[in-house]
Specification:
single chain; 89 residues; alpha+beta; three-stranded antiparallel sheet
Length: 89
Amino acid sequence: MNDAFKALSDPTRRRILELLSDRDMTAGEIAACFDISKPSISHHLNTLKSAGLVMDERSGQNIVYSLNMTIFQELMKWFFDFSKGGTKK
């Protein structure tokens, strides 16, 4: 879970997650929404993927990225437990 919090600390990665919350996208589609290099977008996507926040799937010559809702559910549970004073880990 620490990797997820670290990944969420960057505003570019948070914006990528917002984009993916609307629909699954290729790296090129994501990159078109930013004024930064494609290698930088690739780095952000790899960070999000390593943290388990996004998944990728090959579709022909493209890789399509989507949100991993399981991780978000775990994060929300942690926040809920924390707000109730019940985190023990």
